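step 4 of 6: structure.
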Amino acid sequence: MFQVRIHGRGGQGVVTAAEMLSVAAFDEGRHAQAFPSFGSERTGAPVVAFCRIDDREIRSREPIMEPDALIVQDATLLHQVDVFAGLKSDGYVLINTGKTFAELGLAEFFAQHRADRLCTVPATELALKHLGRPLPNVPLLGGFAAISSTLKLESVHKAIRERFSGKLAEGNCAAASEAYAVVKKEMEEARHAQAD
Amino acid sequence: MLKQIEGSRAVAEAVALCRPEVICAYPISPQTHIVEALGEMVKSGALSPCEFINVESEFAAMSVAIGASAGGARSYTATASQGLLFMVEAVYNASGLGLPIVMTVANRALGAPINIWNDHSDSVSQRDSGWIQLFAETNQEALDLHIQAFRLAEELSLPVMVCMDGFILTHAYERVDMPTQEQVDAYLPPFEPRQVLDPDDPVSIGAMVGPEAFMEVRYLAHAKQIEALQRIPVLAEEFKRQFGRDSGGLLHTYRCEGADTIAVAMGSVLGTIKDVVDEMREAGHKIGVLGITSFRPFPLAAVRMALRQAKRVVVLEKTLAVGKGGVLATDVRMALAVEPVEVYTVIAGLGGRPITKRSLHALFRKAEKDDLDPVTFLDLNRTLVDKQLQREKEKRRSGPAAEAMLRDVGAVAARLV
């Protein structure tokens, strides 16, 4: 079982991201369960959504407390919510920001963590570039496909086209692809740095 | 056809396959997505012929459903929480009149304090209303139960509530196998009302009944529910033959062979409990699970048969009978009245409090040692309660309790669970 927790703010498409992640996994023939954290939905308030992916039926309904991967859609949450709570020691982290982990002040916190599993991607900027709207959720799914290897980028594209149509679908696909490339490159660099 | 969709959407599509002719809708979370989806289907013509009626309240929703059903139309509505309470007078009338309405209850807590999250207080409050109540464990079962519910309701001329956990199921995306229209048509024949308001053959429905026959009419309702105990397993069996799935029935047992301890519950928490039981079985614990699907009628004999070999039973329920403890636990105790089985009541998950595997592991291990109180409140923050009790002791005008306790808890948004 692979468990993903997505943090963001009301209006950023946190729940949609978890749902699309589950659809992408389903399209690959896997079992997936996505659900929101059921808060009162208010724009700007911290929101959490969850997605479990497995090769067999998923029965547990508890919130994901020990995630294999974290997607943080809004870096300002780092000061407000304990987004890293329960993260597995070899877990993946993907944060929507143009900064590095060091620039976010997280270097010390993650000193013992595998560097190639800590990635950032400026998803809001990519969304603005390809969609003209600051919606980071879908580009981050492209980045997630790169970081985790749980999911193919093509499956994310397929899930995008199932959810959206026309310009919205194509813009999101392009943004997801670019996020995928950014994260892939980042991981390569981290691996090289480790190898050096 | 396999689909990865939201639970509400799955239920809406299943209800549409049942060819309802009248849908009355009033929005209330977490039920709203269901009737929204049905509304779209009626508007687009995908669901036709069907009249979608936006009413002004839940009371009107049930009243319109009563009128529509009495007029011979297959009728459906959905609600939750305070919405169900607001329609209660009409809820009792629907069953008292023997009208086979199907209603989804997206289970949600009852206020005050106001709370939009899941527990079973709403539908369980209607346990004596005369409606059949079926609880779904998964979204697949929720959609399957709706198909069975129309068949059961119309055979017996009794209304059926299909209860599914609000948010936990209604808002969860998971895999469902959506049947075809042909499959549903083969299972669910057209509605042939037992009574109908027909200008060509006029009758009156809803007579005033005095002491001379009231008890007998009420007994008839009871007799029909007892009859449902026979029909529910038969319809589930037939469903399995036609659709290839185990869904519905009175109850489901899981790993109960040789179990000393059996956990009893209703709804989606059964999945989490099953995962815990698998882990405990692997560690050598003799533990099993009994899931109750049919809460009303309550299958006393079947529950007794399923539990009588156990040493102890832990009834975990998402309802609090204030001043007593459990509701489901009381029913289970009645089923086991003549059996030497210890029954523990555990109140859990009220108002959306997550029921975690960690807490369940600890709970069941405590139960195995017969170290549980007769009534346990899972993960209760006793300090928080004591603080408020102390405040009330110290000062007459201690103010509103909920507000004070929220202040004591602090910033909730910053916490995950």
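step 5 of 6: annotate
 - The first strand of chain B starts at residue 2 and ends at 6.
 - Residues 390-417 of chain B form one domain.
step 6 of 6: archive
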